[in-house]
Amino acid sequence: MARPGPGCARHQLKILSANVRGLRTNIGDLTHNCVLRHSIDIVVVTETWLNSEVEPTFGIICGYTHWTRKDRLERTGGGVAVCFKEGLQSQLLDVVTPPEMEAMFFRVVLADRLAFLICAMYRP
C-alpha cells in the first residue's frame, strides 16, 4: 500500500463489528456509545433479530447510510446489517452463500481510490 506524500491527510478507517443480540433494543447504546463516540466508518452488526415487519428506515444514524440488512427469514433471531458513514462509497455484491449462513459482501472504495471487500457474516 502506498504511503501518503507530504501534505496528505492520513485517515484511518474505523470498522466496528458487534453481535448486538437485538438491534431494536440496543440501537441507542450502539449509536451513542460506539458509533458516534468513536466516529466509526463502517458498522457491521450480527444477530439483529430483525424481520420483514421492521421498517427499512429503522435505526437510521445521523450521518450514516440506511442499514443494508439480511434478515433471517424462516425463524426468529439471527440477521446481519451494515451501514456506512455518508461519503464512503460502497456497493452490495451479489454473492451466493450457503443457506445456513447469513452473509453480505460489499466493495468499498476509499477517497484515494483504494478498494477492498468487506463481509458481514453470521453463522448460527
Automatic annotation (TrEMBL):
InterPro entries on file? Endo/exonu/phosph_ase_sf (IPR036691)
| Record SUPFAM superfamilies | DNase I-like
Q: Which domain of life is it from?
A: Eukaryota
What is the designated name of this protein? Uncharacterized protein
Lineage runs:
Eukaryota, Metazoa, Ecdysozoa, Arthropoda, Crustacea
